[in-house]
Specification:
The chain has 3 helices and 2 strands, in the order ααββα. The chain is mainly α and 85 residues long. α1 (3-34) packs antiparallel against α3 (49-79).
């Protein structure tokens, strides 16, 4: 792989990681701490939404983000021809 293609691959990879970490930060810190009082006016299965995000929601979002990362990295690896067979 040429240096130019390698640089493009890593730039795309870092952009993906930064976006997913930003989403995780917003969900875990924003919804679980900063917006908890406002979110508590809504309920999921009888529990206030802010409490749910602080206890469960951020973990569910984290698992979904892992699956998104795996799917996108497999796609990116094929695009840049660095995939493993």
């Amino acid at each position: 792989m040429s240096k130019e293609r390698e640089g493009a691959y890593w730039k795309e990879n870092l952009r993906l990681v930064a976006a997913l970490l930003a989403i995780w930060f917003i969900v875990s810190y924003g919804c679980g701490i900063l917006l908890v009082d406002w979110l508590d006016q809504f309920h999921i299965a009888g529990f206030p939404l802010g409490f749910w995000f602080a206890q469960q929601g951020s973990m569910y979002v984290f698992v979904v983000l892992i699956w998104v990362y795996v799917f996108r990295m497999n796609t990116m690896d094929r695009k840049h021809d660095v995939h493993e067979d």
